[in-house]
Design a protein that fits this description.
This protein is mainly beta and about 55 residues long. Helices cover about 0% and strands about 40% of the residues. Pfam families: DUF3553.
Amino acid sequence: MNSALEPGMMVRHPQAPDWGLGQVQSRIGDRVTVNFEHQGKVVIDGQRVELEVVWDV
């Protein structure tokens, strides 16, 4: 599913719900850069974490 992520999409990190909503900044290969409300900019390894897409923002 991470392969379908595009800049601008809103996501949540399933193991870190306290980070809040995050907006995808970029995806290069398996590396996804997300700017989270309460954590800031984080680079996620898409092979280890399956981000949850939030459609109803």
